[in-house]
Amino acid sequence: MAKKEKVLIGRIEYLDFPSLNLSRIAAKIDTGAYSAALHCHKMWVEEIDEKAVLHFDILDPEHPEYKAQIFTSPEFKKKKVRSSNGKKENRYVIKTKITLAGKTYLTDVSLTDRQKMKFPVLVGRKLLQNGYLIDVSKTKIS
Which CATH fold would you assign to the domain 7-135? Predict the structure, then answer.
């Protein structure tokens, strides 16, 4: 059986969220993180037809890709995630498609406030295990 060739990426890459109509969003590649995280500045849950629906507004109005669009998802979960400061926090998690270096995957993405972070997206090992090799000396090579 032929071995799957790994795709080389840098420590910072552009990626797309096709289901959310977002493209060329700068992301930090972080092998220390388990899953992916996306910046949201507003999130709330409403009961619609007796079912909980998550509403969320991604990125910040100052971001060049911000579209002032409220997204909704009836398919979400709440999960305890260890943040970059080591503390566990409850986050909403959705399943969405991410395209990185020409490969698209359906994966879990936690929604969180990353306003104080340099990049609105963090990509962790769960997605990276699909055949990526990271060269930390490079950025935006995909």
Answer: Cathepsin D, subunit A; domain 1 (2.40.70)
